[in-house]
From TrEMBL:
Source species taxonomy: Bacteria, Pseudomonadati, Pseudomonadota, Alphaproteobacteria, Hyphomicrobiales
Gene3D superfamilies, alphabetized: Homeodomain-like
Molecular function GO terms recorded: DNA-binding transcription factor activity; sequence-specific DNA binding
A Pfam family this chain is assigned to: HTH_18
HTH araC/xylS-type domain span: 174-254
Protein name, as recorded: HTH araC/xylS-type domain-containing protein
Domain of life: Bacteria
Listed InterPro entries: AraC_XylS_family_regulators (IPR050204), DUF6597 (IPR046532), Homeodomain-like_sf (IPR009057), HTH_AraC (IPR018060)
The UniProt record lists the keyword Transcription: yes
Length: 274
């Protein structure tokens, strides 16, 4: 499997965290893995065989076609057979708002249902799975950019940068960000589509996933849970099942290849290099 990441151009640095591409041949076997919620929307362009998205609770499936996947607050299985040729932009949490796209929370919206979505795929198809395709996507996104006011972007970037300090709740997070809890809530709902409380839960869960995958700190789940800001192991288990659909032990043993490959994300408090 080929997996590469590329930084956005400076003009998109507040709204696109990175571009990535994947190229693989999975043959005829149905391959499914858990897509770990990371609090980020993704604009996905598929140049290969179409995959599927499955709700692990209901078993319901829908095509994993070219389109926009919004921030997820629950588990999703990603399935694929055949040729995987994907080019994607991992957006910042407030990226869709600046790019004329819907928030699409807990939804995958096909490209042809998005405003001016179809030209995005047509524009990169000729370039194939290559850096040139990423550069074309960057150029097309830059052309549709309607920047969020600088002051608001600074507040949102500061808020996400502070997640590394593991704020205990939305109120203390707002205090550290330098705004009232009400204002932080309004900014999140308008420009991101979720509440600060939900963003905080996803970030805490993401940190736990990293610890479960890496176990770099040693110790069992109870110790990892406390280190990542959970009250106790039961609290961590509930959140893990809510976002992943399985227990930490089941996740660590199976269905985590995509999570291992894509878990670590860039620091929102820094602008990417051009």
């Amino acid at each position: 499997m080929r997996y590469e990441r590329f930084p956005p151009s400076p003009g998109l640095a507040d709204y696109v965290e990175h571009f990535w591409l994947i190229e693989a041949d999975l043959g005829e076997r149905r391959h499914e893995e858990i897509l770990v919620p990371n609090g980020r929307p993704t604009l996905l362009l598929s140049l290969g065989d179409e995959g599927w998205r499955k709700d692990p609770h209901t078993g319901g499936e829908e095509p994993n076609c070219s389109g926009l996947t919004g921030i997820a607050t629950g588990p999703v299985l990603i399935g694929q057979t055949g040729q995987v040729h994907l080019v994607a932009a991992q957006l910042s949490p407030f990226g869709p708002a600046a790019l004329g796209l819907p928030c699409a929370i807990d939804r995958h919206m096909a490209l042809d249902t998005l405003p001016d979505g179809a030209p995005l795929l047509a524009g990169i198809r000729a370039a194939g799975i290559s850096r040139a395709a990423v550069e074309r996507l960057d150029t097309m996104l830059l052309a549709r950019l309607n920047p969020i006011p600088v002051g608001i972007v600074e507040i949102l970037r500061r808020a996400y940068a502070l997640l590394g300090e593991k704020p205990a709740d939305a109120r203390s997070w707002a205090d550290r960000t330098g705004v009232s809890e009400d204002r932080l809530y309004r900014l999140f709902k308008v420009h991101i589509g979720i509440s600060p409380k939900t963003a905080l839960m996803i970030a805490r869960y993401q940190a736990l996933v990293g610890s479960v995958l890496g176990e770099e700190r040693g110790g069992g789940l109870a110790q990892l849970a406390l280190l990542e800001g959970y009250y106790d192991q039961a609290h961590a288990n509930r959140d893990f099942r809510r976002f992943t659909g399985v227990s930490p032990r089941q996740f660590r043993q199976t269905l985590n290849g995509i999570a291992r490959m894509m878990h670590d994300g860039p620091d929102l408090s820094k602008k990417a290099d051009g």
